[in-house]
């Protein structure tokens, strides 16, 4: 099969797959205008994939070769199964159709010991892509019970965008969410071939229109400190300073802590939250023991 024939077949395959998806299922609002073809429009697929409509149109028309990163995000957007993903990459003449499994990160033992010693301030260790590697009980009390989330889903950016509990904690959610997107943009520049990062971007682009819009804006940032205003059902409103401390032994691991200025209502709120979390932990341990 010639390269031109392959490109043509790839375009037909993409067209057939988008015809199977409804705008409502993809979180897209209907404009009311009648659709000439079933399924998603080319412009909608491009929007979900954070690429230009012109670029996607040329892919479908067989006028442009597709890169592996674009194919990966299109496979996520079009909800292809493993066989369909393999076929898509084969048509494009690309290898490694399925994302290679990366060795999972493990929190460094010294960081874990430091984390365990921090009993009166929330703290957690973030890894690549802002994956949550470890946390202390007060961080779980502040944000959410991370242990209930499957390990492969424990990602701070994912939780900010998709977890209602975490999302509700931030009084200025939009600023926090934009910072997350800008940080991922920086990470994508450092690790453009990271398949898990590409999959995360594809997943969030499909699920959240804000992420899709902000990712397309190509804004970048990498802040190591700041202030967050939060609301908590037990501790009330909190103004917390956060800081990320990098590990000298592993630049891909950051210890993030939240603190409050001494003598403020937020400091008192953190103390109350720590006492409440300790009580809850004791009750949970007694229940499990029984």
Structure description:
The protein has about 290 residues and is of the alpha+beta class. It folds into two domains: about 5-90, lambda repressor-like DNA-binding domains (434 Repressor (Amino-terminal Domain)), CATH 1.10.260; about 110-290, Beta-Lactamase (2-Layer Sandwich), CATH 3.30.450.180. The chain has 13 helices and five strands. It has helices at about 5-20, 40-50, 55-60, 70-75, 80-90, 110-115, 135-140, 155-160, 165-170, 175-190, 195-205, 210-215, 265-290; strands spanning about 125, 130-135, 225-230, 235-245, 255-260. The protein has a five-stranded antiparallel sheet with strand order 2-1-5-4-3. Strand 4 and strand 5 form a beta hairpin. Helix 2 crosses helix 3, helix 4 runs antiparallel to helix 5 (about 80-90) and helix 11 (about 195-205) packs across helix 12 (about 210-215). The longest helix has 25 residues, at about 265-290. The radius of gyration is 22 Å and the shape is elongated. The N and C termini lie far apart (about 65 Å). The model is unreliable at about 285-290 (pLDDT under 50).
Short description:
This is Helix-turn-helix domain-containing protein. With 290 residues, the protein is of the alpha+beta class.
Cα(first) to Cα(last) distance is 67 Å
Strand content: 5-15%
Low-confidence stretches: 285-290
Question: Which word captures the global form?
Answer: elongated
What is the H/E string? HHHHHHEEHHHHHHEEEH
Helix content: 40-55%
Largest sheet: 5 strands, antiparallel
From the alpha-carbon coordinates, what is the Rg to the nearest angstrom?
22 Å
For the record, the CATH class of the largest domain is Alpha Beta
CATH architecture of the largest domain: 2-Layer Sandwich
Provide mean pLDDT, rounded.
86
Strand numbers in spatial order across the main sheet: 2-1-5-4-3
Oligomer: single chain
Number of strands: 5
- The structural class is alpha+beta
Annotation field: number of helices: 13
The total tally of domains equals 2
Protein name: Helix-turn-helix domain-containing protein
Domain HTH cro/C1-type: 39-85
Pfam families: HTH_31, MLTR_LBD
Organism: Streptomyces siamensis
């Amino acid at each position: 099969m010639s390269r031109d024939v392959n490109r043509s077949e790839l375009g037909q395959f993409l067209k057939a797959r988008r015809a199977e998806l409804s705008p409502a299922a993809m979180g897209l609002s209907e404009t009311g205008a009648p659709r000439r073809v079933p399924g998603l429009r080319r412009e909608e697929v491009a929007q979900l994939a954070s690429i230009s409509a012109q670029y996607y149109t040329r892919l479908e028309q067989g006028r442009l070769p597709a890169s592996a990163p674009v194919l990966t995000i299109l496979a996520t957007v079009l909800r292809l199964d493993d066989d369909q993903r393999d076929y898509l990459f084969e048509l494009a003449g690309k290898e490694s159709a399925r994302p290679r499994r990366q060795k999972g990160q493990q929190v460094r033992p010294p960081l874990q010991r430091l984390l365990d010693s921090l009993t009166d301030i929330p703290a957690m260790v973030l890894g690549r892509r802002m994956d949550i590697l470890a946390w202390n009980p007060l961080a779980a009390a502040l944000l959410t019970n991370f242990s209930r989330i499957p390990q492969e889903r424990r990602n701070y950016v994912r939780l900010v965008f998709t977890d209602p509990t975490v999302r509700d904690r931030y009084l200025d959610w939009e600023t926090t969410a934009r910072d997350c997107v800008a940080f991922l943009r920086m990470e994508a520049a450092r690790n453009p071939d990271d398949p898990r990062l590409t999959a995360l971007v594809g997943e969030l682009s499909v699920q959240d229109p804000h992420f899709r819009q902000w990712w397309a804006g190509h804004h970048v940032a990498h802040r190591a400190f700041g202030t967050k205003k939060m609301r908590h059902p037990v501790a009330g409103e909190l103004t917390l300073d956060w800081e990320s401390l990098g590990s000298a032994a592993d630049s891909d691991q950051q210890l993030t802590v939240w603190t409050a200025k001494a003598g403020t209502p937020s400091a008192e709120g953190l103390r109350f939250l720590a006492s409440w979390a300790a009580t809850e932990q004791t009750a949970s341990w007694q229940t499990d023991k029984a």
